[in-house]
Design brief:
It is built from 5 helices and 4 strands, in the order H-H-E-E-H-E-H-E-H. The chain has 130 residues and is α+β, with helices and mostly antiparallel strands. It has one domain. The protein has a two-stranded antiparallel sheet. The protein is globular.
Length: 130
Amino acid sequence: MHELFGIQGEYDIRCQQLVRHRIAVWDVLARSIRPGSMDADIRLGGARANDFEEFFVAHPEIQLIAFNGRKAEQLFGKFVGMQATDESVRRVGLPSTSPAYAAMPFSGKLLAWRQALQSGVTDQVTGRMK
């Protein structure tokens, strides 16, 4: 987010800056057990998703859901499901920004995220893509 929008500062300041850019960041899972730091270590048995249905009702202007890595996209499909969103909401799986995902260089990740975020949001005033 720093590279794309200049987001920086303490955590609460970064969150405020994201909101100004009309970006929400939320983990798919509200609760899970993950004995290691890798997504593959997530134990699905006790996992619980965040309440996306309520979130989408509270924020009907959402136009794009960008998943930070394949695992986030899979977890959303398993625990939340696409029925939680309007069919007009675009969904895109993006490369994980985690340094642990080394199969793609940072420049490739940045390009994928830039393209998705810049082409996926319609300006509310003009109706044109930003």
